Amino acid sequence: MRAAPFTPDHSMNVIGGARCAGGGPRRTVENPATSEVLVELTDADPSDVDAAIVAARRAQPAWATLAPVERGRVLRRAADLLRDRNDELARWEVLDTGKPIREALVTDVHSAAECLEYYGGLIAAAAGEHHQLGTLTGWTRREPLGVVGAIGAWNYPLQIAAWKAAPALAAGNAVVFKPSELTPLTAVALAETLAAAGLPDGVFSVVQGGAAVGEALTGHRGIDKLTLTGSVPTGRAVMRAASAGPVPVTLELGGKSPVVVCEDAELDRAVTAAVLANFATQGEVCSNGTRVFVHSSLHGAFVDAFVDTARSLVVGDPLEPATQVGSLISDEHLDKVLDAVRSGVDDGAALRCGGGRRTDGALADGRFVDPAVFTDVADDMAIARDEIFGPVACVFSFETEDEVVERANATSYGLSAGVVTRDVDRAHRLAAALDAGVVWINTYNVTPVEVPFGGVKASGLGRENGWAGLEAVTRTKTVLFESGPLEGL
Ligand code: NAD
Fold this sequence. Notes:
Blueprint: E1 13-15, E2 18-20, E3 26-30, E4 37-42, H1 46-65, H2 68-84, H3 86-97, H4 101-104, H5 108-122, E5 130-133, E6 136-144, E7 147-151, H6 157-170, E8 174-178, H7 185-196, E9 204-206, H8 211-218, E10 225-229, H9 232-243, E11 249-252, E12 258-261, H10 267-278, E13 291-295, H11 296-312, H12 331-346, E14 350-353, E15 372-375, H13 382-385, E16 392-398, H14 401-409, E17 416-420, H15 424-433, E18 438-441, E19 460-461, H16 466-471, E20 474-482
Parallel strand pairs: 7-8, 7-10, 8-9, 10-11, 12-13, 12-17, 13-16, 15-16, 17-18
Antiparallel strand pairs: 1-2, 3-4, 5-6, 6-20, 11-19, 14-15
Helix pairs in contact: 2-5, 2-7, 5-6, 6-7, 10-11
The protein binds nicotinamide-adenine-dinucleotide.
């Protein structure tokens, strides 16, 4: 029997530096892989959200007054503390999400730590501009926005919290973060880590709960910026709320990204890229390349190898090091994924492998689905158009570059895209032609903190990571100073 990291604990909100119970409903959160109760908690209510924002408004000015290098030091210390707890926090992330431990050990905590480290260093170098215009001197100040209201999804809970918190805190903002109601654990760990690293009370708070708590946060007039990682409908709701301020908004939303396997591609690399693009974190990745377009000359060989690899992936207990495909997050999401598979079959696509729920032994208590590969998919079928957010790949055949660009771009989404080719000219052409915020060439789903990440079209607005991530949580003030005589009218 596995010990839950939090036994019944009603103090899962962190407001003004203190762990506390919320005034909202009491509920339990399950480990999706076993259906065991992981934690009991009491959600925030609107007065808790208000208290977190009031604490943030009180704490933010002093935090912003610290020298950038001092704020950065706190973040870099937090990065080290997270790394010290890598194995423990990776395990929590597995219990909360159902993702395989082999991924969590090398991705989730590391990514959060790198983001804190990166912005902890970058902020000291974030100078403004200077313009000497005769006797007029102009300069810009990069100022924090104030209090950032941030809302996360459940697939990468700690990474999402850190990607939102690190640039905002580095720039001198305070943050009130609401994790997904399905994955409450590691946001609390991040708050405690930041506090242990020296972050003043109130500068980073956590409010727990679902859409109602999210709405209390987005509708609060004490918020100066909103940032969401979630689905497109939630993105629209958050943007509507932001328009009341209006306050700036960053939206990291869903996708239905293409991977283009060109005729000159190396087959093994193409299959590996497609596997990374579809089955990591059991397919619950926003940037997944779930529409795999393969040149007709390679299509047969690619499909055989891709199906063989998909079949060979180890589906099972996420805490087992050998497991490559873990449990989906919830019954509701499981039903959505199984419905999508059924709709593909009903629409006449060929299901070449997987797509069924595992009901053997202990896996019956979780939400495990075998990696599915469809071929003979028409571009207008629902499985080719809608984000499934599970281990379901569609493989298409194409003839010409113009044709594949047109079909790849024929979607309302535009988060990311992949290209597998050995032809440098073609790589550049396709990188330019594909409608996406991120294009991976000969790799997939790598997200180094140094480069911006985010989508175009319905996949989002704004960018996280890189310099762009800092600009998104700051405002530019222009100052003009006249040292010469001043002439009147
Ligand atoms: P979701 O939209 O259901 O929920 C996201 C968050 O928003 C949750 O914390 C939820 O409680 C909150 N929320 C829901 N309704 C709200 C409202 N009206 N006002 C304020 N907050 C509200 O998404 P999800 O199911 O948690 O996550 C899956 C989605 O997230 C997928 O579409 C996926 O592609 C997307 N995603 C995008 C990225 C990215 O970086 N682009 C990363 C991860 C996930």
